[in-house]
Amino acid sequence: MSKILVTGAAGFLGSHLAYQLIQKGHQIIGIDNLSSGRLDNVLPLMETGRFLFIPFDITSHHVLTLDALAGIEEIYHLASPASPKFYQSLPFGTIAVNTIGTSFMLELAKTNNAKIVYTSTSEAYGDPQVHPQQEDYRGNVNTWGPRACYDESKRLGEVYCYEYFHRYQVPVKVARIFNTYSAGLQNDDGRVISNFVTQALRQTEITVYGDGSQTRSFCYVDDTILALQLMMENDSANGEIINIGNPSDYSILEVAKLVQKLTRSSSPITFRPLPEDDPKLRRPVIDKAKKLLDWQPKVSLEEGLNRTIAVYRTQNTDKKGILL
């Protein structure tokens, strides 16, 4: 049994990860300031007897003096708003958690001789001019735009990881995560899958931004969580940046039509202007993950959508069986 810290534990990925680690018998400490995470996500975890929740902002240097964190063996640093809806409304907090917060988590790892996985993002590639994207591609990013608070702070977080690995030999691994989904996403989260499924079930317009030709790869949450655990377990991942995502990509319009089909929805698809800096292409090369982790996604988009739709359908239905 290991003593493991999960930052951002009340978020989508954090709560899923904490649950799976608890199932393996580990003792988990979850930290979240609840700026975008939900307390409801961790309440079931607290009932297991293996989860301690600390509502706290890891950008405070006092995080390094919390008694509960003494003897931490592993750190999964997931804290950060991840949806444009949230990080654009919390730009300074987003910058702080990915830079100052990351430096504190690395310092905590250094002090405790702990392993650490830092969750970066495919946004580090910006609007790529190379397709698909592999880890040595430096990206095509914009520091002067509404997405910069997220992607640029994540990139700087990677720099902190580089320095701690090379200067202090902290066993840090960087996961560049591509779009991850499941029913665990809030239906008002603002990301593609949650938007489309919610709109389709409610028989409202399915909103596609731009002409829908922009591509994304979608990885079901169970596959992403497994990859993060494999990164933590494998020393071969120390000091490495590894793409974690599904190497199959779909146009946004294809996804909208697939959701429409699977939900048997009569919702019309409507088009709105593409947001500023929205990437046109996004698909990972996962050769490094295959080689170092023996990992690749197993859940197809259709299977994952069916799982997501089934849960959303229940969540969006009142006691009389009427979709809300």
From TrEMBL:
Please list every transmembrane segment annotated in the UniProt record, as residue ranges.
Answer: none
Q: What is its EC number?
A: 4.1.1.35
| Gene Ontology CC annotations of this record | cytoplasm
According to its UniProt record, where is this protein mainly located? Golgi
Q: Which GO terms describe its molecular function?
A: NAD+ binding; UDP-glucuronate decarboxylase activity
Q: In which pathway does it act?
A: Nucleotide-sugar biosynthesis; UDP-alpha-D-xylose biosynthesis; UDP-alpha-D-xylose from UDP-alpha-D-glucuronate: step 1/1
Q: Which Gene3D superfamilies match?
A: NAD(P)-binding Rossmann-like Domain
Provide the NAD(P)-binding domain boundaries. 5-307
Keyword annotations for this protein? Decarboxylase, Glycoprotein, Golgi apparatus, Lyase, Membrane, NAD, Signal-anchor, Transmembrane, Transmembrane helix
What is the annotated signal peptide range for this record?
A: none
Q: Where does the record place it?
A: Golgi apparatus, Golgi stack membrane
Topology in the lipid bilayer:
Single-pass type II membrane protein
Under the heading Pfam families, the entry gives: GDP_Man_Dehyd
Which cofactors, by name? NAD(+)
According to its UniProt entry, one GO biological process term is: D-xylose metabolic process
Q: Note the PANTHER family from the entry.
A: UDP-GLUCURONIC ACID DECARBOXYLASE 1, UDP-GLUCURONIC ACID DECARBOXYLASE-RELATED
Family membership, please give it.
Belongs to the NAD(P)-dependent epimerase/dehydratase family. UDP-glucuronic acid decarboxylase subfamily.
In Swiss-Prot or TrEMBL terms, this protein is called UDP-glucuronate decarboxylase
Species per Swiss-Prot/TrEMBL record: Cohnella faecalis
